[in-house]
Each structure stands twice: as C-alpha cells, then as structure tokens.
Amino acid sequence: MKKTDIKKTTDLVLWFLFCFILGTGLMIHYRLVPGVQGGSGLTLLGMGRHGWGTLHFWTSCLFIVVLSGHLYLNMNVVKALIADGSNRKTAVLFSIGILIVIFFLVFPVFQGQGGYGKNGIYHRGQQSGHLFR
Fold first, then answer.
1. What's the distance, Cα to Cα, between the start and end of the chain in Å?
2. 119 φ/ψ sector (left φ>0, alpha ψ -120 to 50, else beta)
3. Average pLDDT of each block of 10 consecutive residues along the chain (133 residues)?
4. 49: how many CB neighbours lie within 10 A of its CB?
C-alpha cells in the first residue's frame, strides 16, 4: 500500500472517529441527561449513560492513537508549518500543549452539595463561581 493511500485511509478513519466522539458526547450531554432531570433509565440501542460514556472514552483513546499515526505520516508538513526553521517556536507551542494537559490533571476539583446548588437545582459539574469564593 502506498503512503498516500495510508494517509487517505488514516484521514477517513479520523473523520469517522471524530464524528462518533462528537455524536456520543452531544448525546450523553443533551439526550441521556442525568436521572435527576428526568432521564433516569434512559437508553439508546440498549446502553445507558455510563455505557455510552465508556464507549466514548475508548473511542477517544483510539482517536489519539490514529491521530499520532497521522502526525507521524505528515511529519514533514508539521515541521514546515510549526517549526519554520525555529526550534524555539516549536518548543513554545509544544510547551503550551503540555501545560493544557497538565492543567486538567492537577487543577483542583470540588464537589458541590451532592451535585445540587442553590434552591435544589442540579448542576453538571461544579457550581458556578465556586472556585472564586
């Protein structure tokens, strides 16, 4: 198989994985709402919120693997676009990406009042303004 055919196949697989990840993420957030909001027991194709969440996660992992292969196959283009002959520019862009990942791993998370905010209204995640009190 030619390198161009591998690139085309990789691009197509990335597109379908991206669409699946986007679709499942939106479905989990908007259609399979948490039970408190009346979505208790909702399923799609026999899977509930947690089943789809697991599939969403593992598809995202596969996406990262295929994306790594895609970047490897297109390394010359990546070098030309990012590096532009400057190692400093590449290091800065790489560092910003790493800092974004580290932010989500180390930034403190808080639990509200059992997921409920003021007046018993359910909040997805933390309460607004909770970090800045």
1. 59
2. left
3. 89 93 87 65 80 92 94 81 67 82 77 54 50 42
4. 21
One DSSP character per residue, 44-111 reads BTTB-HHHHHHHHHHHHHHHHHHHHHHHHHTHHHHIIIIITT-HHHHHHHHHHHHHHHHHHHHS----
3-state DSSP helix/strand/coil % of the chain, to nearest 5: 70, 5, 25
Q: What is the C-alpha to C-alpha distance for residues 19 and 57, in angstroms, rounded to an integer?
A: 14
Q: How many angstroms from the chain centroid is the CA of residue 75?
A: 23
CA distances for 118 relative to 42, 83, 105, 115, angstroms: 26, 50, 28, 10
Task: Determine the distance from the C-alpha atom of residue 90 to the mean position of all C-alpha atoms in its chain, rounded to a whole number.
Answer: 23
Which residue, 7, 8, 14, is CA-closest to 73? Answer: 7
Beta partners for residue 113, in sequence order: 116
| Verdict on whether the full-model pTM lies above 0.85 | no
